[in-house]
Amino acid sequence: MSMENPPPPALIRIPIRIVVLVVVLPIRMAWDALAAAARFLDRSVLRPTGRGIAWALTGVGRGIALVLTGVGRGIAWVFRHTVTRPARWLYGAVLAPVGRGIGWAITGVGHGLGRLFTRVGHGLGWFFTGVGRGLAWFFTGVGRGLGWFFTGVGRGLAWFFVRVGRGLARFFAGLWRGIAFGADRLWRGLSVAGLRLGRAVFVWPWVGLWRYVVVPVCRYGIAVPAVWLYRQVLAPLGTGLAFLLEKAVFVPIAALFTYVLIPLLRYGVVVPVLWFDRSVLTPVGQGLGWFFPRLGRGLAVGTVWLARAVFVWPWVGLWRFVLVPVVRYGIAGPLAWLWKRVLVPVAREVRDALAVCWRVAGYVSLAVGRALGWALRTLVGRPAAWFWRSVCTPVGHWVRDSVWAPARRAAVQAGRAAREALASARSSVREALASARATVREARRDAWRALVGGARSPEPGEPEAARARTLGSTTNVPGAAPAPEISLRKRG
């Protein structure tokens, strides 16, 4: 033990251990008694009861499992014969053929519609391509004039709008690619799905209409006049209008913008505003920017020092010079000394005393238990064993040999005699019943012969009685029927 925690004197240790031993000894003896009773109860009651309950529950579980297995098999058989097999037959005999037919029809329709829409799309594409080229030529000239005009006006805005246009162009290009990809996939699916039905219903009539009506009318009634009108009228007219707009409108507007508006804006607005900003606003702003931070810092420092002097320093002095000494030397010091010098040694000694006294109480309890066991063996066990060996065993042997064995033999003989009497009575009753049945059968047959007539037929299993011969006389032996006068050799 270190010098920081010196051992308590024997004056404290011995009374504490005596008191703890007096308190712990009954508790340890009661604990050992309860532990012995619990072990006896576990060996004698709980384990056999648990085994019986487990055996009963196992049997019940097996019975329930057998019942549920039978019920499950019955339900599975009913489900297989009422749901699975009819559903399989319905799918194989009805739904699959109907689905194949519908798929074939939709595929044919999709192919026909695909071809029709392909031809219509080609025609519309050719028509709108020509119209688009004409409009593109016209708007190209107009756009060049407008571009030349607005180039001088918006060089600064051009950079911004070019960037915006590139972003929008990329966005709409990606959007158009996604739409084109989705439309292409949708178109292919519809083409494959509706090919066969469209071919059988819509393709050939519309193909003939397109080939022999729409194409000649569009080609010779619309396209050729439109091309001639574009080449001979619209193209020269557009060229003249573009030249006229360029020379009469765009050139004067560009000159006005270049030589009047831009100098006026530059020297009338921009230059004075820049001078005012550089000469007036910037120095004033820099002065204010230098003054207000210094003013704010000074006010902040003064406010902080004032707040410290009013709210912080008094409480700091009170805490440092009043509360801390009072708590440290008036409360914490005595409590620490009491804890270190009194409570901790007493608690440590009580802990050690509890451990030692618990072991000592265990030895005492073991000795008391052994003494009680010796006393029970001496006062109860040995007299009971002597009484069992000297009194109960001879009496039991005499009862077994003189009373129980003769009684058992007499009971066995009585049972055997009863069984034999019962067997003889049963056989006599069977014979009486058999004779009564034979008598009733014979009486029924005699009554039938008396009513109908006929020879008496022998009983089944009864040997036929030989007829008595009378050597040709007509007299018969009483009770015997006459035999025929034919030798056995002739009878064959």
Protein architecture, described:
With 492 residues, this protein is mainly α. The radius of gyration is 66 Å and the shape is flat. The protein contains 4 helices and no strands.
Descriptive tags:
4 helices; about 500 residues; mainly alpha; disordered C terminus; flat
**Global outline:** flat
How far apart, in Å, are the first and last alpha carbons?
137 Å
| Approximate helicity band | over 70%
The topology string of helices and strands comes to HHHH
Report the portion of residues in β strands: under 5%
Largest sheet geometry: none
Classification by helices and strands: mainly alpha
Give the uncertain stretches in residue-range form.
461-483, 485-492
Count of runs of 4 or more consecutive helical residues: 4
Strands, count: 0
What is the overall pLDDT average?
77
Radius of gyration: 66 Å
Task: Describe the structure concisely.
This protein has 492 residues and is mostly helical.
